[in-house]
Amino acid sequence: MDRLIKNYDSGGFFDELIDQTGTPRPPAKQLLKYLDSLSADELEKRRVTAEATIQEMGISFTVYTEEGNIDRAWPFDIIPRTIEAKDWAVTEAGLKQRLTALNRFIDDLYHDQNCIKDGIIPEHIITESKNFRPECVGVSPAYGVWAHICGTDLVRDADGKFYVLEDNLRVPSGVSYMLENRAITKRVLPELFENDDIQPIGSYPSQLFDTLAALSPRKVARPEIVVLTPGIYNSAYFEHAFLAQQMGVELVEGSDLFVDRDDCVYMKTIYGPERVDVIYRRIDDLFIDPEAFNPESVLGVPGLMRAWKAGHVALANAPGAGVADDKVVYAYVPELIRYYLNEEPILPNVETFLCERDDEREYVLANLDKLVVKPANESGGYGMLVGPHSTKKEQQTFAELIKANPRNYIAQPTLKLSTAPTLIGKDVLEPRHLDLRPFILQSKDTYVTTGGLTRVAMRKGSLVVNSSQGGGSKDTWIVETKGD
């Protein structure tokens, strides 16, 4: 196994596949042994096959630029990331625990607000939240669940432990790429799937369908479920179409639906109106209903909030769920788990400094060159400062932003993000930093994907993994090792 990894050096970071002595970790042994058996030409051939497969399958994402929207082929590395099954079992339990507590928290906020009364979280954190929706107060979604689909970003630090970096509870994306990554890898490395060591991930669409069907206000054999998309120019449109197709449900835009006088939602079909029971909406809150939110929106459905409040349609995720998708609220999640579940958090948070606290703000301002500063409600890697890679001018700009609106900023240490071998050029493996986004589904039951979407910072030394910022991806294997 010397050829590929003899000169591999993770630079002192925790590496997912290779330990500090240069030895493959148990779940990676078979993979690395097999890759080493391939000649340089054969390995290159597999990489080219992956690129051709991506083109053939039309796997793309959209990047918004000043020049316009650009469709790009999905950036993919053929070397999978491996995780031991027994380690994943703990992580899975931690993810279920976390989403259960977050849903209790959201439900409490729109009802009794006991967490505020009991001093668990300050009231102004909620009243100043961009994603708290007064329109949702008093609404009781099925099972008390507001966030039905959650994408939680995990990172491994130098100690090899998983930490939660952030929770995505509004319209989390990326699961289609997780599934497509597996499809590509099966085509490129089919021999490695001949045994049962790699756990399957293909049940996600049926699990998603069951999660949504359980929300139906009508108890019918097959509820009418639709995926509501903003349209073909949205960056995640590929995923919207993919999931609708995989679940066997209709992909619709706002103009395809209407709310009638009975406060029920109907879909326009060639056979006449058809009642809709569940809407998996991939449109932000403020655009889903021009009657309730932004009157200029042409993406939503007039009267949709009325129908939802009347209990005639289910919305996933529920409007208002984004109140917990706030990086300031994130800092309180361990305490929320203790408060609502009377349990210790299984997965730790990354150390977080709240700029609204005077002492923590002073520390952040004095250490901008060492910290990562994030706004409370941005996503996609936008609007953040990565201290060690920033200029003095950028640090000064962020200092002014923090002073002007301290509630809107948090800071975290620059993590020693784990690495994994990535194929760089012909027959050369180099470490690249990565994270992991598993997806958690919750309604009647709770389900966690087997692994998730591994995102890779394709530029050497970079810590930014978002595809919109130049990142790529690779397949994630949960591997049963001997002795599990």
UniProtKB/TrEMBL annotation:
It holds the Pfam family CP_ATPgrasp_2. Gene3D superfamilies: 3.30.1490.270, 3.40.50.11290. InterPro entries: ATP-dep_Glu-Cys_Ligase-2, CP_ATPgrasp_2, UCP005522. Residues 80-457 form the Circularly permuted ATP-grasp type domain. It comes from the Bacteria. PANTHER family: BLR5612 PROTEIN (PTHR34595), SLL1039 PROTEIN (PTHR34595:SF7). This is Circularly permuted type 2 ATP-grasp protein. It comes from Shewanella yunxiaonensis.
